[in-house]
Structures are given as structure tokens and as C-alpha cells.
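REQUEST ID: PR-0412
SUBMITTED BY: lab tech R.K.
PRIORITY: routine
TASK: structure prediction, single protein chain
INPUT:
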Amino acid sequence: MTSTPHHPDLRSQLETLTTEAFRPELAEIDQLPTLDIARLMNGEDATVPAAVAERLPEIAAAIDAVAVRMARGGRLIYAGAGTAGRLGVLDASECPPTFNTGPGQVVGLIAGGPDAMVTSIEGAEDSPELARADLDALALTADDTVVGVSASGRTPYAVGAVEYARSLGALTVGLACNRDSALAAAAEHGIEVVTGPELLTGSTRLKAGTAQKLVLNMLSTITMIRLGKTYGNLMVDVRASNEKLRARSRRIVALATGAADDDIERALTATDGEVKDAILVLLADVDGPTAARLLAESGGHLRAAMAAALG
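STATUS: complete
OUTPUT:
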């Protein structure tokens, strides 16, 4: 089946999107000196945080809802195509080393599968059926959250993922960069960060992509803070999988406890390198197994485990 008959309709849709708008004042940008183009681009990028700031109440409400589900064992699943999909995969892939999340706890789905991370997969973004199949492969539950990500807010893969997830009782979030988007309307929590026309007409990897990155940073990071994955602003659930991270682990324990280096090494040895446990050993003067038990009983929240140990 050819998709040619849909092209006029799609063109008219795109022409109504702010992210696709043409800016005649930039029509001769290619004639400018490089530094002037860089200044223009930097000025455009500087507008993105303000656009995100306008949506902070919606972002916070979504985060609180996600944290409730994840505390029950649910997963955070991003679904998008192209740049939006890649940003979701990026955010998901950074959660295990940063927050010691379990395998599959934060998932990035991109239309067309892993190959689409580096290669354009023709037609994949136009398939809501593909989104349903990808979610079926994850055996979605009502405790899971699906975040559809699409600059236009109309990408069939992202909209299809959200609609299907919602039909199964999962929590849904729709992140778009245009007002009145189908994606935000389909989701329980709609977040529309309107970044305006791009420097290059329709190149939504620019301001829209930056906005999506900022919002995804918030979704994962603040959710993990709510889940007790941090102690203050320290990454106490960091996974020490290489020498840099092992050094960071020692530094985090030092910052949290003020203990001497020898004491930190002993605590990390006694807790098999677990930063949270080592901090509890040092601050509450308990042994490794007791620290592990207290943390398990407090759902991994270090402050709660500390209160139990000292109370």
C-alpha cells in the first residue's frame, strides 16, 4: 500500500505546526558570517528554558504520578521516533549507572528498534501498530508509565503508544512542542513545551529537541529523588562499574559522612561497595548486614533507614 494519497493532508497538517513555521527573516542566514549564525543559534537556544518553565506544574504532576507507580514496581517507558525516540533511549540508558536502576526499570522505545538510533527507518514513525507490538513485547502492566515523546505531537508511533498504554490502564504522559497536540490530548498528563519555529525550518532536533532533553532530565531525575535514589544532592545509588565511578563512590561517602579515607574504605568493603549502605554504616554505627536490612525495610530511602537506626 502506498502512502502517497496522504501527502497533501500531511503537508497541510505540518503547515499548521509552530515547530514547522518558516521564518522569512532568516531566509539569508547562509550568507552570514559563522559567528553571527552562532550568535543567532545561541539566542534561539536561550529561549528554551523559559518555555519549559511555563510547563513546570504539569511536569511536577506527572513526576509525582510516575513515582507512585514506580514505588509499586512499575517501569518508566519512553516511546518516540527519530530525535524524540533517541532522546528517550539516551535518558533510559543513563539511569542504571546514575541511579542503579534494575534491568528494564527505565526503557526507551524508538520506532524501528535499535537500528533506528543511528539510521532512519522509513515508515516506522507512521505505525501505531508497531508501537502496540513494542509495548506488548514488554508485557505492559497498570503500574507502568508510558511517556510518548514527539515534537510535532502528531507522530503516529508516539500517539499510538500512549493510546494503547492508556487502554491497558498504564499511566500516560504526552510530551510535545506544539499546542493542542493529539499526543497531549491522548495522555493522562499532557506536557506541551512550545519552543516556536526553528532556526532551520522544521529541524526539531534543535530547540524542540533541547526542550525534550530538559523535560526528560526532570522526569527521570526528580522521580529518582522521590524514590530515595539520592541523599541530598548526592547520587548515593551510583553503580561503581568502572574506576571513575569507584572514585566517585568514595567521594560521595566522604561528602555525606566527613569520615576519614581509611574508614570509608572499610565501610565500602563491608558493604560490597554499596554507597548507601556504607554511609549508613558510618553515620549510624551499624554493621554491613544491618545497614542492608534497614535500607530494605525503608524501601531504599537512606534518611528513613537512618531514622530507624538512630531512633
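NOTES: The chain has two domains: 7-227, 230-310.
REVIEWED BY: pending
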